[in-house]
Design a protein that fits this description.
With 179 residues, this protein is an alpha+beta fold. It has helices at residues 44-49, 64-72, 120-125, 129-132, and strands at residues 3-9, 18-20, 22-26, 30-31, 59-63, 86-89, 101-104, 108-115, 134-136, 142-144, 148-154, 156-159, 164-167. Helix content is 14%, strand content 33%. The strands form 3 sheets. It has an 8-stranded mixed sheet with strand order 2-1-6-5-11-8-7-13. A 3-stranded antiparallel sheet has the order 4-3-12, with no helix packed on it. A two-stranded antiparallel sheet has the order 9-10.
Length: 179
């Protein structure tokens, strides 16, 4: 059964986030106390482009299997170091269709909005990490592996070891694109 294995946040715009035992998620805003919390975009490059665009990147989720893959390739990564808020286990976040709902804990619901686009910040953290977070799909296209982004549809408190229940949107499913 998919579950939360680590939670992280940071009130500063830093690459990595601090681990914590719980997160308070605010409806339509994101993670309370995190630099990316807000109804409008908070990622600095996106703010420069248009500070009024909606924040589709309120919560960042990564599957723990990515960390294992990167560790096997010699990268020093652990929970929170790639800037995720929620580290999952047994949930292939990259295979979720757009608008999937993730029910976590008692009350919290996240809506998956798209892929995190690996950027140069990864190489600033550890050389070669950007390339390691990219792959090719079966047709030769780019496959981004650095997790997914979501918005908070229903707020609440989530904890490490909370179960994650996936509710898929109506078909036809929309593939995730970078947001």
């Amino acid at each position: 059964m998919p579950k939360v294995i680590s939670l992280s946040k940071d009130d500063q715009h830093q690459f990595s986030k601090r681990n914590c035992d719980s997160l308070d998620l605010l409806t339509g805003l994101g993670v309370e106390g995190d630099a990316h919390c807000g109804a409008t975009v908070k990622h600095r490059s996106r703010v420069r482009a248009d500070a009024e665009q909606p924040n589709l990147r309120q919560v960042h989720l990564i599957h723990s299997e990515l960390l294992s893959e990167l560790q096997d390739k010699g990268f020093n990564v652990r929970a929170g170091t790639l800037g995720e808020n929620i580290l999952t286990k047994d949930l292939n976040v990259l295979a979720l269709p757009r608008n999937s709902l993730l029910k976590i804990g008692k009350d919290t619901v996240l809506r998956v909005t798209g892929l995190r686009n690996p950027c140069a910040q990864l190489d600033n953290f550890q050389q070669g990490l950007t390339k390691a977070c990219l792959d090719q799909d079966g047709s030769g296209g780019v496959r981004r592996k650095a997790g997914v982004m979501a918005v908070v549809e229903a707020g609440g408190t989530i904890y490490v070891n909370d179960v994650i229940i996936v509710e898929y949107p109506p078909e036809p499913f929309e593939a995730l694109e970078p947001v």
